[in-house]
Amino acid sequence: MELPSILQGQRLSDMVKAGIAGAILMTAVGFNWTGYGFGWTLESTAKQAASDAAQASMVRVLAPICADKFRQASDAVANLAALKSTDSWKRDDFIKQAGYATFPGSEYDGKVADACAQLLTQVK
């Protein structure tokens, strides 16, 4: 069986090269490597983005509750003065030791404690 003339010689290699270039271009545009594209993502990237969003929403909800628990304590004024005098990188440990960043049904989360300390030390 003989191949059609369009698939013989130089024309065949040009078509193969064009197909490879098209596949590379489609992949680059699809996965948004060029700065714009179709927005394709890998499953692992999508799972990580979902996990990060869940973590951020949990911190956004629990940090104000932590700050409120801190302010409602009987020794809140003294604790706030102690928190403000503590080094900024140790403030989440201060919140952890006091137990304000631990909630029923969940474990301690350092990001919640850090956000809580930031809320408490903001200048109004």
SSE blueprint:
Blueprint lengths: L9 H21 L12 H30 L3 H10 L5 H8 L11 H12 L3
Helix pairs in contact: 2-5, 4-5
Number of domains: 2
**What profile does the largest beta sheet have?**
none
Tell me the fraction of residues in β-strands, as a range: under 5%
> Total helix count?
5
Radius of gyration, taken over Cα atoms and rounded to an integer in Å: 28 Å
Q: Indicate the structural class.
A: mainly alpha
Helix content: 55-70%
- The residue ranges in which pLDDT falls below 50 over 5 or more consecutive positions are none
Can you tell me the overall shape?
A: rod-shaped
Find the count of extended strands (DSSP E, 2+ residues). Answer: 0
**Sequence of secondary-structure elements:** HHHHH
Could you tell me the mean pLDDT?
A: 87
CA-CA gap between termini: 85 Å
Descriptive report:
It is a single chain. The chain is mainly α and 124 residues long. It has two domains: 1-40, no CATH class; 43-121, no CATH class. Helix content is 65%, strand content 0%. The chain contains five helices and no strands. The chain has helices at 10-30, 43-72, 76-85, 91-98, 110-121. Helix 2 (43-72) crosses helix 5 (110-121). The protein is rod-shaped. The N and C termini lie far apart (85 Å). The model has no long low-confidence stretch (mean pLDDT 87).
